[in-house]
Amino acid sequence: MFGIGIVLYVSIETNAHLDHILFGNMLGVEPDELLTSGIIALVVGSALVLKWKDLVLHSFDPAQAQASGLPVNLLHYGVLAALSLTIVATLSAAGLILAIGLLIAPGAIAFLLVRTFAAMLWVSVLVCMAAMLAGTYASFFLDSAPAPTIILILTAGFIIAFIRRQVVTRQKFDAARGGGEAGRVTFGSLPAAWKSRHPGRPIKNVPAGPPLRLQFGTLYRLLKPGICRRDLRQEILFKRYRLAKSRVECSLSLWKQFVLTLVAVAVAAGLWVRYYPGAGTLLAQWGVDWLPISVANVSPQDAGRPGGGRGGPQATVVTTPVVDITINDRLSAIGTSTALQSVAVTPFTSGRMTEVLVKSGATVKAGDIIARLDADAEQIAVERASNALKDAEARLQRMQALRKTNTATTVQVTDAELAVDNARLQLREAELALSRRSVETPIGGIVGILPITAGNYVSPQTVIATIDDRSEILVDFWVPERYASSIKVGSPLTASSVARPGETFEGVISAVDNRVDSDSRTLQVRARFANDADKLRAGMSFQVSMTFPGDHYPGVDPLAVQWGSDGAFVWAVREGRGVRVPVNIIQRNTDSVLVDAELTPEDEVVTEGIHLVRHGADVAVAGRKQAPASDEPLKTSSTGSGS
């Protein structure tokens, strides 16, 4: 299943990055990773030394360990914790595949080679060290990653040990069958107790073999009272016979195992030839150029370049050019329009409307009368105030004449003048009340639909008409706070109406709010658009667009971004050599990742065969992918509608 998963991962294009998890980075281990692995090894090794006897008893006979009073659950979970720490210690350098292989393969090989537990421990350590040294050295000449190469060497060692074990077992079994009467045990030599326990069992050959490893419970059952030494010997011989017979019946014959091994090797070789980018070049170097299947060859211009990695072949990779991408250079927002001026006309006083002088859709100017209320009482008040003013003026003239003859005093003249002034004020007040019985428009514009007709009683809260000045249209919209420093009053912008697709209107920023909304983290902006042809109306929805200088960043293929202990990085190809370039991810898009790094559009980054690249080593480019699109913005900012 591991092999099928890796083949699918290599053959199917995806944005997932698993190379550093599957294969590790054995040749690029950092000092802090070595320190972490050393600390984990010290802790796990110390725990094993201190609890060695308890762990051995728990592993081989949990029942006896529990009967002896050992903390079985603590030992069980302690072993699991030590196993987990061991995997963590090897994961960064060896990868998941090699970590699992190192846990299984050395022990399995030692189990097939030796028979004692102590010998298995030493043999497994020696096998692991030999496989790692041989795999790391061979990976330079095979142009492959060290981790898979070590796994292949361990696999080959397991196959050899398994074949040897089968051959030795078959030889011992054949020798036991041809041993004559020395290896024959009959029921006639068994005691009566044996016959009573196994009635009617036919006479069989009991092959010789190594001593059985019997658990404590088995020995206790056989040595309990009533069982003599002869019974014990016959019981052990019978168990040995059944064990040998089950091994022969359950195991495949030697030639079948050999055929299955060849089939597995052939399938692995076919997958390597089909999916490995440098397979064609290596086969050509080995003189194997007659295969009828399609292989991944290196391009001719790169095939003749000198190899890297201690005289071995070059790391064959697929690259993608770096592109310069601009972001935050375009703003797109939805806004709602309003008229330049809009007024809901209401009367100053209450009364019955006697006349409406305009119709819906009419164009009016500031000061035009659009309606009148009943004004009989106000007209009477104006005439009364006018008469009072005339009487006060006549009285003032008489007082002034009498003052010339010293008949009237100065105080009387002053009182007459004051009476005239008060009469004039009363007349002005009456005239004002009369004028307010006529409803005038405060602005010029277009009259909307009239909600009321003549004859209705109105109050100061009753809207008689709405008037909009739509010589210009204002559009309010909201922008993200990161654009607050880029938007200035007078900046140009364009807008398109949803109601009039295909038409674009030019405008300018007329106002910018002085604060950012704390709930939505957006800034209100108002734009002004000319409406000479009177095509636009208040309340329409507009798609507003603005352009800015923007920010420029290198864009790389998502498959090129890898992760290490110090963060993200990419492998760049410069002068035919791999260079590890640290990157800081700015923005992720569908087909590109924007990074802050020392990359230029002339650079190329590795997207396939990443696990083969080493810093400063030569690489051969097997192919080049198409660069991410850079002529259009990858992402624009969109905001909700405003009002």
Poorly predicted ranges (pLDDT <50, ≥5 residues)? 179-198, 201-230, 244-252, 294-313, 631-643
Report the radius of gyration as a whole number of Å: 50 Å
Helix content: 40-55%
Average pLDDT for all residues = 77
What is the CA–CA distance across the termini? 59 Å
Give the percentage of residues in beta strands: 15-25%
The rough form would be described as elongated
Q: How would a textbook summarize the main sheet?
A: 6 strands, mixed
**Count of individual beta strands:** 23
What does this protein structure show overall?
Strands 1, 16, 17, 18, 21 and 22 form a six-stranded mixed sheet that branches. A six-stranded antiparallel β-barrel has the order 3-10-13-12-11-14. The protein has a four-stranded antiparallel sheet with strand order 2-15-20-19, with no helix packed on it. 24% of the residues are buried. Residues 179-198, 201-230, 244-252, 294-313 and 631-643 have low confidence and may be disordered. The protein starts with a helix and ends with a strand. The protein is 42% helix and 22% strand. It has helices at 2-11, 19-22, 31-50, 52-60, 62-67, 72-113, 117-142, 146-177, 192-197, 216-222, 229-250, 254-275, 279-285, 300-303, 376-404, 410-435, and strands spanning 315-321, 323-327, 330-345, 351-356, 363-364, 369-373, 438-440, 445-447, 457-458, 465-480, 492-497, 504-512, 522-530, 541-547, 551-556, 562-564, 567-574, 577-582, 584-588, 593-596, 604-608, 619-624, 637-639. With 643 residues, it is α+β, with helices and mostly antiparallel strands. β17 and β18 (577-582) form a beta hairpin.
